[in-house]
C-alpha cells in the first residue's frame, strides 16, 4: 500500500551514535517514564514509512527501525544527517536525536505542514526564537551540499541548509524541546 497524507514522503531518522560523555552512560538507553530515551525519540515518527536509526550496527534494536551505520563515525550529527539523507528515499527526512524525549507527533506534523516547494529544511523556533536543527526536517536535495560542507571540515548542524532555503516555524509547546545532556535534565515523574 502506498502511504498517503503528510507522512507519505517522510523518512523518520533518530541519530544515536554519540558518546553521551556529559550523561555518563549511554543516554539512548536511559529510562524515563517507562521507556528508553531512544524509544521516546522514535515513537512520534512511527507513521513515517521508512525509519532509520543512525548508530553502530548491533548496539540498538527498535522494532520497525533499520540501523544504518555512520559513514563518518564519531563526526557528529551533521555527518549523521549526511548518512541519513544518503540512505533515505528521495523526499524529506524528519531528523532528531535521543536527547529530545518530549517531541510529539503534533510537533512533527506542524513542521510537515510548513513544507513548501523549494524549501530544503523546516525548523522550529523555541520560545527564545532559537532554531532547533536537531528536531527538524531536511530534504534529500541537500545531499551534495552536505557532503561538500563535511569535506571542507564543517561540523555545525545548524549550517546544514542554506539560510534562504530554510523555513522557521514557532513551536506551540516549547516544553517538548527539553534537551537531555546530563541525568539532571530528566525531570521526575509528572
Ligand atoms: N550517528 C551519530 N550520532 C551522533 C554523533 N554525535 C552525536 N550524535 C547524536 O546526536 C544527538 C545529540 O548529540 P549530543 O547531545 O552532543 O550527544 P552526545 O555526543 O552523545 O553527548 P555528549 O558526549 O555529552 O556531547 C544524540 O542523539 C547523539 O547520539 C555521531 O557522531 N554519530
Ligand atoms: Mg544534546
TrEMBL record:
<keyword id="KW-0963">Cytoplasm</keyword>
<dbReference type="InterPro" id="IPR013482">
    <property type="entry name" value="Molybde_CF_guanTrfase"/>
</dbReference>
<protein>
    <recommendedName>
        <fullName>Probable molybdenum cofactor guanylyltransferase</fullName>
        <ecNumber>2.7.7.77</ecNumber>
    </recommendedName>
</protein>
<dbReference type="InterPro" id="IPR025877">
    <property type="entry name" value="MobA-like_NTP_Trfase"/>
</dbReference>
<keyword id="KW-0342">GTP-binding</keyword>
<dbReference type="InterPro" id="IPR029044">
    <property type="entry name" value="Nucleotide-diphossugar_trans"/>
</dbReference>
<feature type="binding site">
    <location>
        <position position="99"/>
    </location>
    <ligand>
        <name>GTP</name>
    </ligand>
</feature>
<feature type="binding site">
    <location>
        <begin position="15"/>
        <end position="17"/>
    </location>
    <ligand>
        <name>GTP</name>
    </ligand>
</feature>
<feature type="binding site">
    <location>
        <position position="27"/>
    </location>
    <ligand>
        <name>GTP</name>
    </ligand>
</feature>
<feature type="binding site">
    <location>
        <position position="99"/>
    </location>
    <ligand>
        <name>Mg(2+)</name>
    </ligand>
</feature>
<keyword id="KW-0460">Magnesium</keyword>
<keyword id="KW-0548">Nucleotidyltransferase</keyword>
<feature type="domain" description="MobA-like NTP transferase">
    <location>
        <begin position="12"/>
        <end position="158"/>
    </location>
</feature>
<keyword id="KW-0479">Metal-binding</keyword>
<keyword id="KW-0808">Transferase</keyword>
<keyword id="KW-0547">Nucleotide-binding</keyword>
<comment type="similarity">
    <text>Belongs to the MobA family.</text>
</comment>
<dbReference type="GO" id="GO:0016779">
    <property type="term" value="F:nucleotidyltransferase activity"/>
</dbReference>
<feature type="binding site">
    <location>
        <position position="70"/>
    </location>
    <ligand>
        <name>GTP</name>
    </ligand>
</feature>
<dbReference type="Pfam" id="PF12804">
    <property type="entry name" value="NTP_transf_3"/>
</dbReference>
<keyword id="KW-0501">Molybdenum cofactor biosynthesis</keyword>
<comment type="function">
    <text>Transfers a GMP moiety from GTP to Mo-molybdopterin (Mo-MPT) cofactor (Moco or molybdenum cofactor) to form Mo-molybdopterin guanine dinucleotide (Mo-MGD) cofactor.</text>
</comment>
Amino acid at each position: 500500500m502506498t502511504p498517503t497524507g503528510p507522512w507519505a514522503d517522510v523518512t523518520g531518522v533518530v541519530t544515536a551514535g554519540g558518546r553521551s560523555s556529559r550523561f555518563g552512560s549511554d543516554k539512548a538507553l536511559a529510562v524515563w517514564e517507562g521507556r528508553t530515551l531512544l524509544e521516546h525519540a522514535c515513537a512520534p515518527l512511527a507513521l513515517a514509512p521508512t525509519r532509520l536509526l543512525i548508530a553502530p550496527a548491533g548496539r540498538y534494536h527498535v522494532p520497525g527501525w533499520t540501523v544504518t551505520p555512520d559513514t563518518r563515525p564519531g563526526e557528529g550529527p551533521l555527518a549523521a544527517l549526511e548518512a541519513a539523507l544518503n540512505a533515505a528515499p528521495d523526499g524529506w527526512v524528519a531528523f532528531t536525536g535521543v536527547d529530545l524525549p518530549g517531541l510529539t507527533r503534533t510537533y512533527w506534523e506542524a513542521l510537515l505542514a510548513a513544507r513548501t516547494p523549494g524549501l530544503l529544511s523546516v525548523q522550529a523556533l523555541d520560545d527564545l526564537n532559537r532554531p532547533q536543527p536537531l528536531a527538524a526536517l531536511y530534504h534529500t536535495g541537500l545531499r551534495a551540499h552536505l557532503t561538500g560542507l563535511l569535506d571542507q571540515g564543517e561540523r555545525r548542524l545548524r549550517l546544514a541548509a542554506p539560510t534562504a532555503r530554510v523555513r522557521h516555524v514557532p513551536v506551540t509547546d516549547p516544553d517538548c524541546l527539553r534537551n537531555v545532556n546530563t541525568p539532571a535534565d530528566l525531570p521526575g515523574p509528572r
